[in-house]
Amino acid sequence: MLMDRLEMQDDSKRSNRPKYSKFTQQELPACKPLLTPAIVISAFLLVGILFVPIGLASLSASQEIVELVDRYDTSCVTVADKVGFIQNTKTDKSCTRTLTIPKHMKSPIQIYYQIGDFYQNHRRYVKSRSDKQLRYKDAAHLTKDCEPEVYSAGGAPIVPCGLVAWSLFNDTYTISVNKKAIVVNKKDIAWQSDKKKKFGSDVYPSNFQNGNLIGGARLNESIPLSEQEDLIVWMRTAALPTFRKLYGRIETDIMENDELTVVIQNNYNTYSFGGSKALVLSTTSWIGGKNNFIGFAYLIVGGFCLFLALVFVVLYMIKPRTLGDPSFLSWNRGTMDYPS
Hints:
five-stranded antiparallel β-sheet
C-alpha cells in the first residue's frame, strides 16, 4: 500500500497538466458584442455612409486626371526583322511622334515609360543583383548572386552587377510643344529612401556594360550610384508584367489642342520577347495617377452595405422576433414547451 501511494505521488508530480493561468485557460478579458438587430443595421449603415462619399470623391478625382498613352514600339520599327533592326548599332533608331493634347494639363506633368510583358518579378531576375555592392564602396567583389552578369570581358567585377542593372531602360524622349522645346526635369524621380539607404554616395559604376553581351543603358562612371536616378527607379522591380516607371516631369502647363512632338531614341529591345513600349503623360491628384478601381471598389462595398441594412430593416419590421427567444433553438422546435 505504501509503495502504491508513493507511485501515485510520483505520477502526480510528473503530470503534463499545465500550470493554471488565464491565458492557457482562455479566460482573458474579451469583447463579446451582442449582435442585436439595431447594432447590425447601424454597422452596415455606418460603413455605407462612409464608403459611398469616399468612392464618389475618388472617382471624381480620377476623372479629373488627364492621361495620354502612346504606344510606339510597333510604329517606330516598320521593317520585318525588328530584332535585327534594334540590335544593329549602326542604324538610326530615332522616331518622331506627334500627339494632340485632348485637355488642359496642369503642371507638374508626369512622364512615364510603360513596358508590357516584361516579367521583372521572375525569381532568377529579381535575385540577380547585389544590394551590398550597391550600398558599400568596399563590396565591389560581392557578386555571387549576380549571375550571369558578374565580370567584364577582362575579368574585373561589374558595378552594379546582375541582370536587373544590366537591363536598364535606355529609350530617351525629347519633347516640344508647338515646336518649342520643353525641358524635362529628371531630378527627384526616385524615392528619397532608396537614394539615401540603398545606393551609396561613394559607389561609382565600373566595367558596366563591358561584358560579352551589351544590355540596356550605360552609366556615367563619374557620378555616384546615389545620384543615378534612372538606375534607382529601374532597380525597384515591378510586381506585374505590365508596369510604368517615372522618366521625368514637365514643369509647365500644356493647353488643350496643343501639338506635342516627341523625338524618341528607340533603343530598348522589347522585340526579342514580344514586349511592348509606350510613352505616358499624366497629371496627378490627391489619389495619385488615374485609377478608377479604388472609387468603384468603395462604391460597391458601400452600396452593398446600405442594401443589406435596408434588407435587415424590412425583415425586422415584417417579422420581428424577441431577442434571446429559446423557441428558435433547433432542439426546442416542435416540443411540448415550445410548439411550432
